[in-house]
Amino acid sequence: MSLKKSLIYVILLLLTALVFSGCGSKAAPAQEVSAAESGEKSAQAEAQGAKSSEPSSEAPQATSSEAKPQEDPSSRPSASEPAGKDSAPSAEDPGKAAQPSQPENKPADAPAQTAPAAPSDDTKPAQKTEPAAPSEPASPSEQPANTDAKPEAPAEGNGGKKKKDSYSGFFEDSLFIGDSRSVGLVEYGNVGEPTAFCHTGLSVYNYDNDDLDVAGFGKISLADLLELGSFDKVYVGLGINELGYAEDTTVQKFGELIDLIKANQPSANIYVLANLHVTAARSRKDKTHNNGKIDSLNSRLESLCDGTKVIYIDGNPLFDDGNGALSEDFTGDNTHLYARCYPTWSQLIYESSKQ
What we know:
The structure is a single chain. With about 350 residues, the protein is of the alpha/beta class. Helices cover about 35% and strands about 10% of the residues. The chain has a domain at about 170-355: SGNH hydrolase (Rossmann fold, 3-Layer(aba) Sandwich).
């Protein structure tokens, strides 16, 4: 019984202590609660400080919109080092030059290669319609008619061939023998398609040296052409390349050519075309090809003609300037006619030949 009483007594004491301890905690001053809270906060701050002292892989977060972290100047790429592969200049910083994403083989300061600019009208070579007169005598190197002057456009519906005038069929049975001026006459004179033994530089001194390509005959000499062909009219337009030779010898050579034609084409009429003048500008400067020598040779050539079977045709009045020289209105090189002038010459030849 005494043991039971002792246990009951102890239990009562414990209950009494518990009751008094509960009342005491409720009556604790607010300062003790604040101190407890302060201690708890302090502990939390120390824990956060311990965490902040440890290295973190995450970038620190700004605690305030006003307290932005300052950019470390050392972290910026220097001017001498290219930016990283993914770096790009900020649109907000136009002062920074764009860096290439990958290093190039060309030096950074190499000038950009640009296509050459098209030349302006001032630098383009002008199309010369009046080239300078040749300084050398008209010889085997004589230039053909000036091609800067375009011939008349071909008539529609004739397959792109040159325009044919009403008299073009008149020359179909004709043979033209001549130099560059005769080349121009056949090419641009609207004479149809006569047989032509014409070549730049041809003269009475070399016509029998080489064979020429002649339509319908192939490569052939003049002697063979006269022997094989059949012509009603033969036109001889030579003389400008012979001015550097002795005139007597040249006239003799002309006579031999006329005899060769008569022997092989006895029924043909022979027409000797007068040599056209050169311009006054060339005549004054050129000791060989001047109008004094041209007139002298033409006079001698006319003397070879009888007016019946051998006829002289002088085209100079058509193109002279009134002072016995080729008008500069009709030539671009002081010697040859513009292409547009040849039909005028061929018209005169036609009118003189049909009489």
